[in-house]
Every structure is written in C-alpha cells, then in structure tokens.
Design goal:
With 220 residues, this protein is mostly helical. Helix content is 65%, strand content 0%.
Length: 220
C-alpha cells in the first residue's frame, strides 16, 4: 500500500470506535504496573461498549491482568517481549533490523509526531507500538493509522508470533489488526518474507530477530 492509499484508508478508518480500541490496546500492552492494574475497571467498562470482535480480546486480557499476581505478570511480560526475538513491540525493527535505515525510519516517525504537535520522551523510541497507538488514539487518528499501515507487516508478524506462543497478549494485537483493512497481496508477501528471513542486518552473523538495541523496559 503506497502513501496515498494509506492516507485514504486512514481517513476512512479514523472513527471513534477505532480510537477507543487503539487507546485501550496502548494501555493493555504496557509493562504491568500497579497504575495499570488500577485502571482496569475503566478499561473493562470501555471495552464493554465495543463489538465483540474487537472488545472481547481487550476484556480477556484485562481479566487476565486482574486475576494474575503482579510479579507473575511482570515476569511473563519480560519473557514475552524482551526475550522472544519475534515479539518486539518496536515496529521498525521488523522492516529494517539493526541497519542504518532503521535510524532514518525512527527520525521520520519523530517528525510525523512533531508535525501533529506531539513530542516523544527522549528515553522512548517512537516506533514502540504503545506510543504509536496512543498517538493515533489521542493526537492525530489519520496520521497514526497511516503509520500503523506503513508498518503493517511487522504488526501482523507480531500477532502471529504471540498467537504461536499462546500469549494472552495475542488477542489485543489481533484487535488492533482488526481495525485495519485486510492484508493485500504485497502485504501478505511481506509478512511471509519476514517470517522466513527475519529483518535485514548489517552485522555479519546477526541472527534473525535479535532484540532491538533499546531494552523493552524503556516503556516502564
């Protein structure tokens, strides 16, 4: 999908329902904390207003977070997103790996946020899925959805990896994907290629899907 097509799709998809899904997903995909657990009643109430295809996965993860000890949640989160190479929440990593092009992509994301009047904290990487979802939900829906579409292959690969590992987070990423158009032929090819080869790398011997250079704890 080219830039013009992404902009047109984003305009169609920028609805209140999509914004609610993105906002709730941004919260639920954060590192588990007492503050997040305190918000769960509000998250569940908002998710009740959504249709089941997108609301049910959000409610299920909220239930899981509410019923599981915080220490276990935190350990599971680290195991899932810090230690599994194919479960990175940093979306540009899927397309560019540890290459110079990734640095350019990160700068372009920051510029897109700044153009909409948003700034990313200096300690945060702008391609973290939670940041992108929060931007789409609360700052500029059309620009945020267009950015999600630009990184659709990585988002789908994350969903598949979470499903393969039976992660409780899989449904939430699936709900985000459900707010976007079905994969087109080129996008399906890109997902298949990433799944088979991993992201590009400039380091000899770099294994596919090595963790990104900034630790996942950046959002904690």
């Amino acid at each position: 999908m080219n830039r013009v097509a992404r902009a047109a799709a984003a305009h169609r998809l920028a609805t209140r329902q999509t914004a609610v899904v993105h906002r709730l997903a941004a919260l639920l995909l954060e590192y588990p904390s007492p503050e997040l657990l305190a918000l769960l009643p509000q998250v569940e109430a908002a998710a009740q207003e959504l249709p089941d295809p997108v609301g049910a996965p959000l409610r299920q993860l909220a239930d899981h977070l509410r019923l599981t000890a915080l220490s276990q949640l935190q350990a599971d989160y680290v195991e899932t997103f810090d230690l599994r190479r194919r479960c990175s929440l940093y979306l540009t990593y899927y397309s560019y790996g540890d290459t110079r092009k990734r640095g350019v992509a990160l700068v372009e994301l920051k510029q897109a946020y700044r153009a909409a009047g948003a700034e990313v904290d200096g300690e945060e990487l702008p391609d973290h899925l939670c940041i992108l979802l929060e931007f789409a939900a609360t700052t500029d829906a059309e620009a945020g959805i267009a950015l999600l579409l630009a990184h659709r292959a990585g988002l789908e690969l994350l969903r598949l990896a979470l499903e393969d590992s039976r992660s409780p987070y899989a449904g939430v990423v699936g709900a985000v994907c459900a707010t976007l158009p079905p994969l087109a032929g080129d996008e399906r090819d890109a997902v298949a290629r990433l799944a088979a080869e991993g992201p590009p790398g400039e380091e000899v011997g770099l294994e596919p899907f090595m963790p990104p250079p900034t630790p996942m704890g950046a959002r904690r």
